[in-house]
């Protein structure tokens, strides 16, 4: 979790689509996490439909 640099969201999810290209703040270390839409990495039928990652 401390090494996370990105949050991937599914582009078909209306809740997150408007966040593409924006940043969230990591709650532990204050770093910016880029939010990216990706239909390959995020399964729209599972969980919150968002995935944290490192790129």
What features would you describe in this structure?
The structure is a single chain. The chain is mainly beta and 55 residues long. It has a domain at 1-37. It is built from no helices and four strands. A hairpin with a 6-residue loop joins strand 2 and strand 3 (32-37). It starts with 5 loop residues before the first strand and ends with a strand. The model has no long low-confidence stretch (mean pLDDT 85).
Question: Secondary-structure blueprint of this entry?
Answer:
Layout: E1 6-9, E2 23-25, E3 32-37, E4 50-53
Parallel strand pairs: 1-3
Antiparallel strand pairs: 1-4, 2-3
The backbone outline, from C-alpha atoms, is: globular
The amount of beta strand, in percent, is 25-35%
Low-confidence stretches: none
Q: Could you tell me the mean pLDDT?
A: 85
- Rg calc: 11 Å
Helix content: under 10%
Number of strands: 4
Query: Tell me about the biggest sheet?
Result: 4 strands, mixed
The number of helical segments is 0
What is the straight-line distance between the termini?
A: 13 Å
Which features does this protein show?
ATP-binding, ligase, globular, 55 residues, valine-tRNA ligase activity, mainly beta, ATP binding, EC 6.1.1.9
Provide a concise account of the structure shown.
This protein is mainly beta. Helices cover 0% and strands 31% of the residues. The protein contains no helices and four strands.
